Amino acid sequence: MLIRLCLLFTALKQVAGTELENGLPQWNTTDQGSISDHIIEIMEHFKQPDPVGIPGAPILDPMPIPDLRHSKTTWTLVMKNSTVRGLSQFKIEDIYSDMAIMQISLALKYVKLEVIGNYTLTNWFSKSAGGFNVTIVGVYLQGVGVMEVTRHGNLQASDIEMDISFDDIRLDFKNLGYFGSLFQGMINTLGTFVFDSIKPFILRTVNTNLRGDVNKFLMNVKKTFPNSIPPLDLGIAELRKATREKGYDPFKLEDYSYSAGIFSFDARQIWLFGLATFYRVGNITVGVTNNTLTVGLQVATKKIKGKTDWEVSLGSVLSRTGYTSFSVEYLEIDAKVNQSLNVRKTPKLEDLKVSVGNIQLRSDGLGTMDYVLELVANVLPNLLRYQIVDALEGLMRQRLQENLNLIDMEREIRTHLKDLEGITDPDANGNTVFYPDEDFPDDIEMFDDIAE
């Protein structure tokens, strides 16, 4: 997920060549480099204690704005050659993405934005001209965007709903001259006018260019999707397929041996079936808060089955061999994992909840004791299910965190950088290459692989 986040920001930089509306200058793309270079640049950026902005984000800074004109009965104010400065100096307040409905919301915070330019103030008695500075303090920008699948099978960003607010505005007009004190009260009321005038322009420009650049990148992504199945569920179906192909379903456990004195127990040919029957039962979310990436998932499996051959011996007095099979009706996991955007830090398991269905066991080889064993195994675990699950959660949390502590996230990202280089495939002229529709499964067929 962290790789995908880096890739998203990198993609914005890769395609930030869209010409702005209203004759604004084109974004400079003369030194773009490779996707790998940009991801490394982003990784290094977030190693800072208090990172500001994102390297290569397609935000024009400074951003030219149209001339502003404000008139009253006795005076007219014209503001020309104005630019907004500081748009790239944001901090990520919050990002939240619901992968199921392909919706992402974000909140960016600016310490300040500055509008700098020249003004002319005329009235019945005089004319003043000079430079001005409008400082907008505590700026908060929010946006919500949705991805959708086009008829060609490409992902596309729809309109991004955005809003911007502020805490305070400070104004400084130079060279007001003799009538400065007379018009100072009027000048102090211009803050809201300036903000309300530039707000729609900033939102429209950011929306148009951000959406356009994202869509230009997405049109070059090799993978296409059906519009009848959420891409997330299609991806999970691909994961189920990969789980089987890599030999994890069925999965063979190592043989187990235990001995104490003259007693010994050996289990061989231990197999688990159904590990690849997982599916989404709730939301899968990705969020960023306080420079920490959080991934939340709710998944469950269908029935998991297992079997083993075993041998029990009591010295040379008694020896029995047998066969045991078991099944768990379902296994459901609700987990959250945190990863600092500073990839030198290891992932942390924030939350883990586990629930299991009915447990059934069948045994053959102990004679009458088979019935006793089955009775105990089938009744006791179900009666004490919640106590057993609580104990398992603590053990699983500890083991999972131990494994997460061994992950070198920076090395993992660098190892997979080459895999990302082929994510897009424009032709020699830089135009989008469309790939023929794939033979996608329909809504029912996609879940045939986990149907009982």
From TrEMBL:
Single GO MF descriptor: lipid binding
Pfam families: Grp7_allergen, JHBP
Coiled-coil regions, chain positions: none
Family annotation (InterPro entries): Bactericidal_perm-incr_a/b_dom, Haemolymph_juvenile_hormone-bd, Mite_allergen_7_sf, Mite_allergen_group-7, To_sf
Protein name: Uncharacterized protein
Organism whose genome encodes this protein: Apolygus lucorum (Small green plant bug)
